[in-house]
Amino acid sequence: MAAAPLKTQRLLRMTISLYRNPGRTAPEAYEYAVNNFAIQAAKIHAKHGIVGYNHVFTPLSVRQTMEEMNRRRNRNWVVDDHDMTVEFYFRSFAELAKVTNDPDFQRLQTEEEPYMNRTHTVSTLGWVETYVDNGQVVNVGQDDKSMYGSWEESVDLSTAMPSQPAPPMTGN
User: Fold this and answer.
1) Which of 32, 6, 5, 7 is nearest to 21 (CA)?
2) pLDDT tens-digit profile of 16-29?
3) Tens digits of per-residue pLDDT, 61-95?
4) Chain-centre distance for alpha carbon 7
5) Distant-in-sequence, close-in-space partners of 35: CB < 8 Å, separation ≥ 6
6) Whole-model pTM?
7) What phi-psi label fits residue 135: left (phi over 0), alpha (psi between -120 and 50 degrees) or beta?
8) Which of 59, 91, 130, 140 is most exposed, with the fewest beta carbons within 10 Å of its own?
């Protein structure tokens, strides 16, 4: 009897969608994000085991393009009006807690305040199932079934929780 295929390990994704500070232009906020914050944050995230870290920029011109596509296709979609979304990919909340409690990251978050407006920030949490990567079908078994865990396994986040509470946050 052939061995059952290995399940693909669950990858969690958390997003934080932000507006830029109205006192800054979109190019100023972008410049700060890519040449200061992202560079320093990437090093901190990698040090603590974050699997992926992305910035997705959605300035007004891009949102207007999406609105036009939406109108032409009569989709009635709600187009998110945030200026950028930060994506974090991780296997357990322990990695995220390490980042959050890192003094260098806490300092970095304070430094971003003149550029990013935290009012009306929107966040999401879910898991990622990838089926096409670099133009290739992935995570599909020979039986044409997903190689990810079942619904019950996927929604059970208890395995992603740290075994002991993270130390309390300090600073802001």
Assistant:
1) 32
2) 999 999 999 999 99
3) 999 999 999 999 999 999 999 999 999 999 999 99
4) 23
5) none
6) 0.86
7) left
8) 130
**Identity of the residue numbered 165:** P
**Amino acid letter, 97:** A
Q: Return d(Cα 65, Cα 10) in angstroms, integer.
A: 33
Please give the Cα distance from 27 to 77 (Å, whole number).
27
Q: Which pLDDT score, from 0 to 100, does residue 1 have?
A: 44
Q: Is pLDDT above 90 for 97?
A: yes
Residue 93, both tokens: 């909340």
* C-beta atoms surrounding 88 within 10 Å: 20
Q: What is the per-residue pLDDT for 12? A: 95
Tokens matching residue 153: 């396994």
Q: Does residue 9 contact residue 113 with C-beta atoms inside 8 Å?
A: no
